[in-house]
Amino acid sequence: MLLGSSLKELTIRYPYLGQFLEAYPFVLKQSGDIPLGAVLRELESRDEDLAFDAGSFIAQLQEFIQQMQEFLGQEHAAVEVLTILPGFDKQGNPEGFEKLELAKGSVTSIVGPTGSGKSRLLADIEWVAQGDTPTGRRVLVNNRPPLTDWRYASGKKLVAQLSQNMNFVMDLEVEEFLMLHARSRMIANADGLVRQIIAQANELAGEKFGPHTPITALSGGQSRALMIADTAILSASPVVLIDEIENAGIDRRRALDLLIREEKIVLMATHDPILALMADQRIVISNGGISRLIKTSDVEKAMLAELEHYDKKMMQFRNQLRHGGLLHEITDL
């Protein structure tokens, strides 16, 4: 594939190649739109004084691309399914399931009383536990034990987590912050992606904000909306863990639709019945262990439509009060 493509095509596909090619200015000078293989043959045969070894060049180029893809997390796009194998609850009793599979593009909710162990399950998934956490659970990637660097390498995060509390400490505008993230991932069309992230975040947040809004001035809801859009569009992590998104003050349905559209594996700990029923399945946590796995039935989906109807009414009441109105003045209830 490399030999049949021009450097122009390869640079579009792998924007970070400029760093590698700086060491080979004579290759750059000869390339243009000519396939790389033809350029290398020409260089190797034409100038013996150059002492250019085309085979060594290609080997180094392939290794550089592989390392950069791994660093940028591109290999994670191949994650099709996560599998959780059972461990034990707080009393050492075996968990009540044989195997739990989470497929790409699916949403799974996690329910249970406060302190039951929902956050512990999210942590086991984030750490890709291998029987070495208090629960003794194991997490497989594509039905195999995970690679070691998926657990420990800082540049290969399998999981992006959105916690309940989110505070920015950097003195940057929204656009500057997103550009910084995009450049760290060597994104080619950073400007376009940053505009897309801000637009999507404003679709989720109640109050709009602009590219020049300081990130420290964002409200809690705006911050969560920004990070959900950033995670969906810019992050390479194939798994997203969300802790109590209902407290974020954002459009929950749109947030989940955005993450599903980007084919993430989504898990969310929640106390919200609407969010619980929006998921394809829900994990019930009790006493630190998974006690039950429930598929969302057609009956529950019908009940979800009714709950969303009442939720919409509550949202109207909330907005009417927020803007100084009187509840009995709402005419379209």
Structural class: alpha/beta
Please state how the strands of the largest beta sheet are arranged side by side. Answer: 5-6-7-3-8-9
Strand content: 5-15%
* Mean pLDDT over all positions: 83
Based on CA atoms alone, the radius of gyration comes out at 25 Å
Give the overall shape: globular
In DSSP terms (H or I, runs of 4 or more residues), the helix count works out at: 13
How much helicity do the residues have? 40-55%
| SSE string | HHHHHEEEHEHEHHHEHEHEEH
Topology, number of strands? 9
Unreliable spans: none
Q: Sheet with the most strands?
A: 6 strands, mixed
The termini sit apart by: 60 Å
Key descriptive features of the protein:
six-stranded mixed sheet, globular, three-stranded antiparallel sheet, 13 helices, 333 residues, alpha/beta
